[in-house]
């Protein structure tokens, strides 16, 4: 679940969900949507009335995530120097960090890089580290140094993952081993704005082999609570799955209370109608299971929900 501050519209993204999850856990735990809001960026400090240093040390503009990671001259120099992907793509041309990260899901790394996952977050992480060194220690990182270091980190991590995979017995590879082989995994999330009572819902379907099948979003007005937003997101995803003809699905939501209420059939009074809808829709599938996923692993659905809001 994502509670939106209207002034903060920042995001990230991916390709295969297993890459996504491992990248998120091992690399981007510092730059998920949620934690971007807590980064000590000038924009965020200003919101907390800590207005002493809210401008970019490179150029003096307000220090937003979009500025630091995409549009500052320093970031532009980095992105201009980079040739990471088989197609020509410049994140600095994107309007927002979220848009850039979602677009990188589709990109293929150039083979000589030796990096299998999405390399974009590694460069973002490099920009963040460089920013901190400059702000707190007055140490300047050149764009070339930043790129070299970021790629080296990504290569080392890729090699480490390969070593870990070799050491692991096949049965321990995933939490989804118990599911029927043709089950589709659906990551769902909602973003909710208290001021407008709007909910943005996002869902994304993957095969168990990690191939992304499709995704969708919807917006609901007059949504009174975050949990109602989550329920609407699940109902929307189930309607989509039924229309698409999916018969076996595993729903992943980061709203633990909701998953508990659906699985125990102990429905909250104020959401009884929607929850019954979900129960009714569930009967359309040969196999359906609802399970909880930690918020930092629900990165893609979170991004979709926030972008639509
Ligand atoms: Zn700047």
From TrEMBL:
Listed CDD domains: RNase_H_like (cd06222)
Entry-linked Pfam families: RVT_3, zf-RVT
Domain named RNase H type-1: residues: 188-305
InterPro entries cross-referenced by the UniProt entry: RNase_H-like_dom_plant, RNase_H-like_EbsB-rel, RNaseH-like_sf, RNaseH_domain, RNaseH_sf, RVT-Znf
Domain Reverse transcriptase zinc-binding span(s) in chain numbering: 32-79
Signal sequence annotation: none
GO MF annotations, alphabetized: nucleic acid binding; RNA-DNA hybrid ribonuclease activity
Protein name: Uncharacterized protein LOC108837698
Source organism of the structure: Raphanus sativus (Radish)
């Amino acid at each position: 679940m994502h509670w939106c501050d209207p002034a903060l519209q920042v995001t990230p993204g991916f390709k295969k969900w297993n890459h996504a999850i491992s990248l998120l856990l091992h690399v981007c735990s510092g730059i998920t949507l949620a934690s971007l809001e807590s980064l000590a960026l000038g924009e965020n400090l200003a919101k907390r009335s800590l207005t002493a240093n809210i401008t970019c040390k490179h150029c003096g503009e307000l220090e937003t995530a979009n500025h630091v990671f995409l549009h500052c001259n320093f970031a532009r120099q980095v992105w201009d120097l980079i040739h990471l992907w088989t197609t020509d793509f410049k994140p600095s041309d994107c309007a927002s960090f979220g848009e850039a990260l979602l677009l990188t899901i589709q990109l293929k790394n150039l083979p000589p890089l030796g990096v299998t996952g999405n390399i974009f977050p590694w460069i973002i992480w490099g920009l963040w580290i460089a920013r901190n060194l400059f702000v707190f220690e007055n140490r300047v990182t050149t764009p070339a140094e930043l790129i070299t270091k970021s790629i080296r980190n990504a290569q080392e991590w890729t090699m480490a993952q390969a070593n870990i995979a070799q050491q692991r017995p096949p049965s321990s590879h995933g939490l989804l081993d118990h599911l029927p082989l043709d089950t589709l995994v659906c990551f769902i999330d909602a973003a909710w704005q208290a001021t407008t009572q709007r909910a943005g819902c996002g869902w994304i379907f993957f095969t168990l082999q990690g191939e992304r099948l499709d995704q969708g979003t919807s917006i609901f007005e007059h949504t009174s609570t975050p949990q109602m937003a989550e329920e609407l997101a699940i109902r929307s995803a189930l309607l989509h799955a039924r229309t698409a003809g999916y018969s076996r699905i595993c729903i992943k939501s980061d709203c633990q209370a909701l998953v508990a209420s659906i699985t125990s059939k102990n429905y909250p009074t104020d959401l009884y109608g929607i929850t019954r809808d979900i129960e009714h829709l569930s009967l359309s599938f040969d196999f359906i299971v609802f399970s909880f996923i930690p918020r930092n692993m629900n990165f893609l659905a979170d991004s979709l929900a926030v972008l639509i809001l």
